[in-house]
Amino acid sequence: MDDLDRITYCVTVARDSVGDKIQTLPALKCLEVYHHGPYEGFAEQREHLVRYAQEADIPLAGTCRHLYLESPALHLDSSRYVTLIFLPLAE
Question: pTM for this structure?
């Protein structure tokens, strides 16, 4: 589970976007939670997912990812931010 200490921050882009920083993530099974509100709550949400996986004996692997869905680019009020936080499942 050491890789889960790493975090990747992601934003969605148009399908035809190009550039050296644009990557297509592979499909994967994961545990996820939608975080509503300021970014300061990310660590707590991540820890909640990890605890749930441990209690349910669900093996995790890979890097924790934060996908920004509603962000400062769309809202000045941080209470309106929506971020998908997900942890990949081990295969």
Answer: 0.78
